[in-house]
Amino acid sequence: MFETGIEGYYVLVDGKKLRYGYTTGTCAAAAAKAATLFLLTGQPPAASTISTPKGIDLTLPVEEAVLNTDSARCAVRKFSGDDPDVTNGTLIVVTVSPSTRPGIHIDGGEGVGRVTKPGLKVPVGAAAINPGPRSMIERAVTEALEEAEAVQGVNVVISVPEGAALAAKTFNPRLGIVGGISILGTSGIVEPMSEEALLDSIRLEIRQRKALGDERLILAPGNYGMDFLQDAFGIGEERIVKISNFAGRALDAAAEAGFTEVLLAGHIGKLVKLAGGIMNTHSREGDGRAELLAGCALRAGCDGDTARAILACVTTDEMLRILREMGLLPSAMEILAQRIDLYVSARVKGLLKVGVLVFSDDYGPLCATAAAKEWLNKDMKEKESKL
Length: 387
Fold this sequence. Notes:
single chain, alpha/beta, CbiD-like, 2 domains
């Protein structure tokens, strides 16, 4: 895989050097510049050089350069470095043709999704080409027009032959982007194992839920939480935003989007960590599950032997079993809810009213913070009134 311009750029993850890659937006910009030059000069380009917003200049090889009577087509292959990106190796194809209108007119073709729901950075009905990549494409085409001393307008169509199939493996179906992938990349560079890429998707979905009129944002770390909300309360998957381990950052994004109420539901193995102020629940960021549950048990009145037994456990279900056998499960869970409420409230600083529901696969619903109880009681009364 061609890597000129990326060599020497990497991140260290667990002691390993992981190479940078470049985004679909970068590929589209490079292919657009190449196709514009090809159209205007008739000379097939072997490579295309562009600058990325991150400040890294790239020279990327051009594939499938085809010149027709009234258009030119060039392709650049996506390289994701050592990031596990589903679009790695995908051809990003750009067709450029003259326009009777002045300026640069960018649209999506085959395999580039169309936006069908509000709340994204791209308006409903438009091709899913984000503002950052769109600016890169405009700048690259402008450079080509100036280089060829041409001033006429051009039409630029971005296509991804594999895009429709790849889209099923992305967030696009949940975001209401149909027919293909999005052309993405704020910095133009793919950083391996980048949390920001996932956080950007979470922020997008949160903003979309607000734009669709949701009064209360509903969050879950993953499929367990989504299944629990569906089974226990009949909340459809389409209303729930999956936030992975980013509880704190998701709450920040909720406040930024203008929400005032949030409901977060998840397995105790994740959400117990909130009781210690751990707002990124990934194990590498912090564990403390046994210590936190042992602390709740001590506050609930357990003896030292019970606390030590909890500390020796590997799973939260083992810890819950001990609490139940000692008759301490309800009181310890009430204390856990209070501690979660304390730290979550400190995180949101009065900007949000956050209710948290905690459950276990083996023990079912375990505890709820004050706001969650309030909402559940209200919902129950509303359902009873309809009977």
